[in-house]
Amino acid sequence: SAAAVSSNRIDLQRLGNSLKIFHTSSPSFVIAASAEYAEYWLHEHAADQIDNTISRTKALAGDFEGMYNFAPVDRSFNASVRAGRDPLRIVISHTDGRHIGPTANSLISRGIDLEMYDMKRIVLIPALDQTSDEFAALAAALEFAAEDHRVAGQIHIDKSELQILDQIWRQMISDVPEQAVCPGNAMLKMTSQKQVSFETAAGMISARAIVPYPPGIPLVWPGEKLSSEKLAFINKLGENGINLIGISNKKVHVLC
């Protein structure tokens, strides 16, 4: 309550750290409450709606041929589409292999909800009841994004460097971090923190998770000892338009 905060009975920093543990954007209670109706709806309408969605995605891919790659676009998994991939998952990349970040940010600014994006690709997951008007809005947003790029006339990362950075990102996600402090202690017990620059944070212990979002997979965990290599990479992501949760004013939160 406001009274508890004003009387200092609640530590706002500790409360904020605790909220991060339980925060989610997934509407789990809504889905649970509507599960039975969803099952009925899928039984009655799913086949037709899947075909409609795939047809609209194919049309979109055709409209932007030579500008964007779309994959997958049908249910017949060919050699270029990994068997078993969700046919409704729309993966968009640039045909020239350049950084997708500016395009992703342009789509977000025009109200397009992205499932995730990294340096090379955008992932969209359309709902089965997505309308033709909503696909038209996506097409318009993609056209605006392409025009934004033509006006700017700049590519932040060349294709070869982008490929290297994408490989580094994938490796860092799977690497086991160097834990100096238990994550729970770093988040909830060791509340004395400070903010330092990327240049001076190497060797210090992170007080927060550092998460490129989307996709929302941490590159740094609370309690992890920060390496200069990982800090340089995270800084590179920020310089190229990747949204970073856990970074404030281009500074890193570390334990004192």
How would you portray this structure in words?
With 256 residues, the protein is α+β, with helices and mostly antiparallel strands. The chain is built from nine helices and nine strands. Strand 3 (116-117) and strand 4 form a beta hairpin. It has a four-stranded antiparallel beta sheet, with helices on one face. Strands 5-9-8 form a three-stranded antiparallel beta sheet, with no helix packed on it. It is globular. Residues 77-81 have low confidence and may be disordered. Helices cover 45% and strands 12% of the residues. It has helices at 2-6, 12-22, 28-33, 35-63, 101-109, 132-152, 159-174, 183-189, 228-239; strands at 68-71, 90-94, 116-117, 122-124, 193-197, 211-212, 244-245, 247-248, 251-255. Helix 5 (101-109) packs across helix 6 (132-152).
Task: Break the fold down into its secondary structure elements and pairings.
Elements: H1 2-6, H2 12-22, H3 28-33, H4 35-63, E1 68-71, E2 90-94, H5 101-109, E3 116-117, E4 122-124, H6 132-152, H7 159-174, H8 183-189, E5 193-197, E6 211-212, H9 228-239, E7 244-245, E8 247-248, E9 251-255
Antiparallel strand pairs: 1-2, 2-4, 3-4, 5-9, 6-7, 8-9
Helix pairs in contact: 5-6
